[in-house]
Amino acid sequence: MKNLLCLFAIIAIISASSCSNGSRGAGANAGNKRSHQADTGFTGIENYKVKGVIKKSVTYKNGIKDGLTKTYFNEAAVEQEIPYVNGKKNGIAKWYYTDGYVFRTTPYENDTINGEQVQYYKSGKIRAKMKYDNGKRYPGLDEYEMDGTKITSYPKLVYHINDNYKEKGSIKILVEMSDLSEGSKYYRGKFVNGLVDLGTCTPLLQSATTGYIDLKKTTGASLDTVYVIGAYLTRFGNRYFTSMAIPLPYKDLN
User: Fold this and answer.
1) Which structural domains are found in the chain, ordered by start?
2) N or C terminus of the chain with fewer C-beta within 10 Å?
3) Residue 35 pLDDT greater than 80, yes or no
């Protein structure tokens, strides 16, 4: 009899444990569910909470993200909205200011930015525009003052060469923006089909304002040009890309 009572107690504990897990929108336990768990078959909106406050809501169809995924500054203010179709970002994603005005819209096709990304002032006027082609950005951009005036002037990419070829068989190329602005980034490489593809480039060693390329005399080298990309950080927080081809004073450097 005593053994039978113990068995009933164990079954009761297991049943209670099973019932306490997996509830949708129930707070910490709800956060353990993820969009890749298609075998759940869940269709609907799941809320993810932190200390009882909704921080994220995800729309699922048969256990896969399909519909809007939202994140929140707080339970009342949406931070971003990203549309999904069959588990991938598709459509116009939106980011918001804390007071509810749209800050940015970004077009997605199958998880990839494709089209024109637009930033806005709270007034609804356009702040900036950048174009993407299958995830790769066009180098230029359009930025506007609050009164609608277009920004037309950006610093140029310039270079200097410290020539130690005769003494040490080496040179150092220094690249920087013409206004010596901090925050710019520099890469060795060039645009691919007119687009920025930093995956094909090599970041340069640099200080706050200047990038460096060290080249040495190398047997068998036949390099006559070095290509450099500068990514200028605008006062709007965007990147303006520019490039240049630097002719080398010696043909046996690498």
Assistant:
1) 23-143 (2.20.110), 157-247 (2.60.40)
2) N
3) no
